[in-house]
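Need tokens for this chain, all 325 residues.
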Amino acid sequence: MTIASPVSRDTCLDCLVIGGGPAGLTAALYLARFERRFLVVDSGQARTSWIPTSHNIPFFSAGISGPEILTRQREHAFRFGAKIVDGTVTKLERHNGRFIATVEGGGAQHQIRAHRVLLATGTDDIEPNLPDLPDAIRRGLVRYCPICDGYEAKDKRIAVIGYGDRGLGEAVFVARTYSRDVTLLTLGQGMALDARQREQVERHGIMVVHEPVLGLDIGDGRITVLRTADGAEHRFEVLYSALGLTIRSELALAMGARHDGTGALIVDEHNRTTVPGLYAAGGVVRGLDQVVVAMGHGAIAATDIHNRCELPTEEEADGGAAVSD
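Here are the structure tokens for all 325 residues:
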């Protein structure tokens, strides 16, 4: 089934923004104020929407929730004429210097053409297999980013869920920064610690629990009991998941964009990927995954898009990013 596109079939936008999180919405604000022809396609899956309260956003010392961030950004962009539609871009192609995006939503499909594309599709957390996980996240009992909200867990009993270098690295970060009561839960994966890792564990007083987690009890605003396969019970106030992220970069990877081993896109100082005319911003880009960083990416990319709008991408000598590891 096909439906009418939100823009005329004969229209070629200056830019199509894919993703309605902090990066995409910041770009939308800039492009709207630059009076460019653009459209935001939003699948409604912004990771920001899971944030209960953040005190890590400038100007909001009392804290602000993820949904409120997105609502305010949308309203701000709408004030300057931005257009945002619900849908998912399932395919992105490039022909004769133009992008063709296939958009699906509500069982329908249409295509959008654009000279440039900004990919702001973000990431998905790899979630731990725990009961009542969504409720625990909403209540701030299970968290994903100690950089964002580790301060609020200061001096509490903290468990880090993870294994390998990533899990241990996050446990060390939490232990050396916020709390001296940190436990690493490997969820049954086990960890054969080498000499360097054992030294880190001992120096920071980290307890390592190798057994699988069978269940947890929540009460009085904390995780009262966490039960492991060996019958032991552990009590924590906050759990951090360090299982990693799934980068939503498939559209760019299918076009041959350069990326690292996790699928995160490598961009230049203007947030251009190695595909001419394709930009990336926010969590889909290799680097520090933070709301304010994503906003900065969006602003940088949108400004470069505006400055280059009169140049046909197929004739740009440096249309893609000149990047190196």
